[in-house]
Write a structure and sequence with these properties.
By secondary structure, the chain is an all-alpha fold. The protein is built from 12 helices and no strands.
Length: 307
Amino acid sequence: MRQVQPAPPVQQPMLALGLRLLAVAVLSTLIMLVKYTAGTGVHFVEILFWRQVPSIVLILGWLALRGEVSRLKTKRLGSHARRAMLGLTGMFFTFGAPLLLPLAVSTTLGFTTPIFAVILSALLLREKVGPVRWLAVALGFAGVVIIAQPGHVLIPPLGAAVGLGAGFMVALISIQVRDLGRTDEALSIVFWFAALSSPILLAALPFTYTQHTGWQWFLLIAGGVLGCVGQLLLTASLRYGQVASVVVMDYSALVWATLYGWLVWNELSPAATWWGAPAIIAAGGVIAWREQRLHRRVPPAAASSGE
């Protein structure tokens, strides 16, 4: 008997954009909190562990109260496991970059996600990429060079590499989350990410754990709650909208990063950041615009025409 595939979720572009904008605000606050918590002496691995655990407790507890634990059932546990491994790697890059760089700089380097998405689509998915998107890629990396300033010491090379790694990993993860969202709901995706990655972090905890003050415990738990809410919003945005459409909202993170950097650390970004950021943002905007045109005007079979 022919297996009937579940219908894909109904696309709601405005809802997706609103969810993404809210997700960016929540996750920007989380990244600030991770940087601040690490500054109080809590080990980075432990911060990541407590970033994940509240998601398991909150989602499982809420569904249990409603008698809806069955919503976590999935036929794609292998895909969730791969997403967990990629997500764990991505967290090391995403939360590690702000520890090595000013918030605004690490955030700007993270904007390379659309640029890496184009490269990955060409190399891994064998999609044809036309001159418009390749020019956008070149423009984006010109912005990276301006910010990193090779040969200067303003931006540590390791920090720049970690920041670019964050952009690369988010590109990979966004594609995978988008695929999982066709069959599994946001709660399930976030739950399995936390449940499958936490044991790995737990194994490292005995080597990194230290005694904490009440304030440090508050920061750790608050980070976990923000992470859960942010991931739910982020995953939902990818369920109701195209990656190329919603990713434009990510640029609002620069506003939050600049604000938090100034308020919490009295941290002003190097002038090179403000020269390079427009190039990276413009590149991402061009790529998003081009992807939207392809999805709206080109039939699915011709979506990789290379225009």
